[in-house]
Amino acid sequence: MNDIKQPLSDVQLEILKAFSHNLTDEELKEFKETIGKYFADRAIQSANKVWDEKGWTYEDVNSMLQTKMRKSKK
Fold this sequence. Notes:
single chain, 74 residues, mainly alpha, elongated
């Protein structure tokens, strides 16, 4: 059996330190929502950057929504 040990990332270590005690159900829910919002905000920022770089308009996006852009696997 291959046992590949990978160290924890800096983020994982900080989260472990910060939450070395049990959270209430409400605290855990808030934590999950905060993490989700953080990553959602980052995704929105990335999408906005591409939008601006490409100079897209709402008409462009509507056109993309009507176009099949995925290629099927065969």
